[in-house]
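Box 3.1 A note on notation
Throughout this textbook, protein chains are presented in two layers. The first layer is the amino acid sequence; the second is a token string describing backbone geometry. Keep the layers aligned when reading.
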Amino acid sequence: MSKAKGISVLSGGLDCCVATSIYAKDYDLTAITFNYGQHSFNQELKHAKLICEKLGMEHVVIDLPWLEKISNSSLTNDNEIPEIDNDDLDNYEKAIESAKAVWVPARNTVFCSIALAFAESINAEIIIVGWDYEEAITFPDNSKEYLKSFNETIKYGSFDDIEIKAPLIDMNKVDIVLKGHEVNAPMELSYSCYAGEEKHCGVCESCKRRKRAFDSGNILDPTEYIK
């Protein structure tokens, strides 16, 4: 009997790597990686391909040049990518300042709308995303409320019975690393850095949260950091 089909929104990052791994054995998955002009795209693409090879998934790349043109994010322009102290990772004001600096307009809304269209076209039943509780504190499009609302929109906006699955929605980064270890996710193949260098910079917020998660979870961190 053939497996049901699914779509993974796969940036190559830690969260989507773990989330996708949870469903990889039970679904025939196609991963989508988006290019919206982010500095880290080449590395994201490289690592997304490696994850797809490891998990046996088809891989599709979708270019969104217009999103780069309207974005004021430091992920896509020449503005300096913010660095954050370890002590400020749980400081809401500091973290929200960092989040706004890297915010890409309606990114997850755009991604999930395209993923929905792709899911309809291949009769997929699920769309997998790596949204989690820790990032939802500062990124509204990672929240449980946003997930619920988008799934409600799908009910009214599609003929098909498709659901966005966010298995990490109640987890912080430590929980995610532990879950990844449990399901044997290829976390060593994931890439989380905003800067886009071959090695993780070690000082952007994404790197800091990744470092802390592996350290706090007592799981060996396979990541190479510059700092």
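Residues 68 and 171 are 30 Å apart (CA to CA). The chain has a mean pLDDT of 97.
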